[in-house]
Amino acid sequence: MDNGRENQRQQYQKSYHHQRSQGEQNEENFQQRNQQRNQEKRQEQQNRHQKGEEDEEEENQEFVQTTVNIGPPILDKKMLAKNIGLKKDLQKIPECAEKTIIELIVCYQEKILQVSNRISINIQEKLEILQNQLSIQQLFSEDIKEIIGKLKPLIRTDDYSSIVKFLKDILKIIRPLNIPEIERLIEKAKEAASLIQNQEIVLFLSVTGVGKSTTIQFLSGAKMENTKVEVAPGRYLDHITAINITEDSPLKNVVSNPHSESETRYITPVPVTFGKLGDKITLCDAPGHSDTSGYEVDIANAVGIIEALKLAKSVRVFALSSYASLGDKGEGIRKLANILVDMIQNIQENKESVAYGFTKYPENTDIFARLMDIYNTNEEDLTEENSPFACVLRDMIEKTEDDVIKIDPIDGKPENILRKLKKVTPIKYPQDVFRYSMSQETQNQIQLQVEKNKNYITQATKRKNILLVSYYLNNLKSLEKIVKNYVNDSYEECKRLVYQSIFEYQKEVLDQFSLMLNNQDGLTSENISMFQNYNNYLQNIQILSEHYETESSSSSLRLLSPKSFLENMMIELKKQRLKFEKQNQNNENYNNNSNNN
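RE: above sequence
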């Protein structure tokens, strides 16, 4: 059974990549091909009309125009953006297994994106280098060995997606967190903070796939269209999305897709003006929670989004629930309740600032009745008055008994919903209300990254690979700056470890220097080589200075410079000179005394 599924998967991937190689995934080619197809359809219509045939092609023409292949191009744009980020990261990474893996990922993703006509690096050579680096860095775990075993046979194929997947699996083991990506996301959140400062905002919250981005597009007044999205060759999903979004529109960064994957990776504000009096409000799209975006987004949310919200004049919360996410026993509401409780301190006191919206529900669904059914089904779980689930479900029921905010992006009227949101009691002091606690899984990943970094620093220090020591210290320093409470004293601990290693090496060389001075054989070629290596080492460790020349660093932790080392050697020479002079003086006195006797 497993072999059969594997064969099907490989056949699908070969078919998929074959179509990619023909330009199916290239957005520009797709548009040209679509235009050509439309022209052919129009010509066919004219021919049929001339023959007096019934013109049924209008529906087909409409289908062609609305069958927008936005699936793969969206994925391509995401991959292209990630590739650009990876290339920037490569410039800061010294030669190591992590860098080699990223180089291979970039290379193969360029093949998938068709931005390169040939593989620009020697794959076999890179794989040999990678295996050697994994061995030297003591990273060859059983899991990595297994993945390498699966990867090798694929190198000679065009199954680039599987190759990238396996490479990313190895990278995830070596580097649980992409720290540069977290920093990029936090910077984006800071940009958003400047846009929502002193503004009245509506914060959209939900799990992934509910339709936050689509709802914001709809409420902002964008033209919405029901499209067909090609998710695999010849396979389509229905998807509602905004069309004709211009480059200068705030909506350009509000992207939706039909794959139940979060497109939003940082808070995105969209200012909206509505009504005859020109009421203003800012809709804020936030990354989905408990979603597919990864630990990096969760960490960036914890740091960036909450800091941004604290600058707003006031905040109203619009919590969305979809028919699919609801579940038989209200599982979706449980998740939504946990999101609200994690983010809002004392949800019971602030529930008047929360409105509920319902997306993707069948037209004739009685949402209040559905919620009551969930309540009756979970009556035993609702005995705890203060449980998040009980609090949110009761609040939902109370607010939907007489009026339900049901989102209909095609036929609905945005202004009616915006008026209702404007009437919601705002949170006027968001800095006192909002908080963000990361999931336990994310906290575990942070701890795992910290432990791996400490191990990498220890190993690189032993090998005297200062470039790697610097890289991993920088990573740990960045992570401490982002989530200090989770890193604790690991950064300072690693600094002391590195300093101790430097000090011990210095002592070893100085001891050798003293032995040489006491040795009757004088300076040997081995001594010269050792002193040259140490001088180079001292020059290299100067890149670590930023970690030791801060106010928080102990005054005793100061790196030895080549100049200081020479000064120490001069001191040793001076000691030896005084020793020799004293010894000579003693010998001379002894000889004089002997002559006198």
